[in-house]
Amino acid sequence: MSHLTVLRSYAQKRNPAKLPPSLLFSHTDTTITIFDCYPKALFHFLVLPRPSPTLSVFDLASLRTLLRGDKQRARDVLLLLRAEGARVRTSIEEEMRARYGFAWPVWTGFHAVPSLEHVHLHVISADLCAPALKNKKHYNSFHPKLGYFLHLDTVLEWFDAEPSYYDSMSQLKKSRYEPLVKEDLVCFHCARVMHNMPTLKAHLQEEWDTLRAKATSARTKRKLENEATTADAPPPKKVAVDVRASEGET
DNA sequence: GTTCTAGAAC
DNA sequence: GTTCTAGAAC
Question: What domain of life (predicted)?
Fold first, then answer.
């Protein structure tokens, strides 16, 4: 089996439950959600639409083939992916709180020029802190404002635009998108230009650490205020020290 | 998609 | 001399 068609092979499984648990996150009658094998963020899943009698693997070869086939059917598939993507996002947010004590944004969208066959919706946490994120293409392909990463809601808006606009966008021309991944490394948090990948990765980690510190100190502050209004609450001395320490950083 | 590595960049 | 990128090979 070629590595280029590995996603198709998953989507075609009659019984997805037999996929290894290290790969399969969840499935429905119409979708299969897997863990990305090379996660580019702390949380990174792929939602795959499953073929059916009215939706062949050829229709699902890529977002491009899907959009250029029957338009109403394409919209229906995207709506299924959106619904499942929303469920996955909710699971991610629960896990974010459990593991890290706060939840941060999650992006759902497609690469304009995919490397693997079969439509796959990325559901990825907005940190881009992961060992498998190694080069400029990896980073730029998920940058939320660059244009290569197509947010699902943006693609759905194409359906309500002028038909000529839909026809134009659904071409997903390589010549339009491929140059984008070669652009400068711009931090998606603060828009600063980073001069190489090691510098960018260290900076992204700092940005996420700051995000976490702010979120958890805000929560601790709220908690302290609540306790202050409760007469019988014991003075939370250790926590109070932590709050002063983290507030001093900002 | 990843790995490997030559040679550019520092 | 070492780090880093980017293109070839898979």
Answer: Eukaryota
Catalytic annotation, pick one of A27, A44, A111, A120? A120
Eight-class DSSP state of A18? G
Per residue in A149-183, pLDDT (tens digit) is: 999 999 999 999 999 999 999 999 999 999 999 99
> What's the burial of A14, exposed, middle or buried (CB within 10 Å: 0-12/13-18/19+)?
exposed
pLDDT, residue A107, reads 98
**Other beta carbons within 10 Å of A238:** 7
Nucleotide with C1' nearest the A114 CA: B1
Domains belonging to chain A, first-starting first, are 3-171 (3.30.428.10), 184-250 (no CATH)
Chain C: bases < 7 Å from a protein Cβ: 3-6
User: Catalytic annotation on A120?
Assistant: yes
**pLDDT confidence tier of residue A247, bands split at 50, 70 and 90:** very low
Identify the CA nearest to A141 among candidates A119, A118, A124.
Answer: A124
- How confident is the model over A63-86, as a mean pLDDT? 98
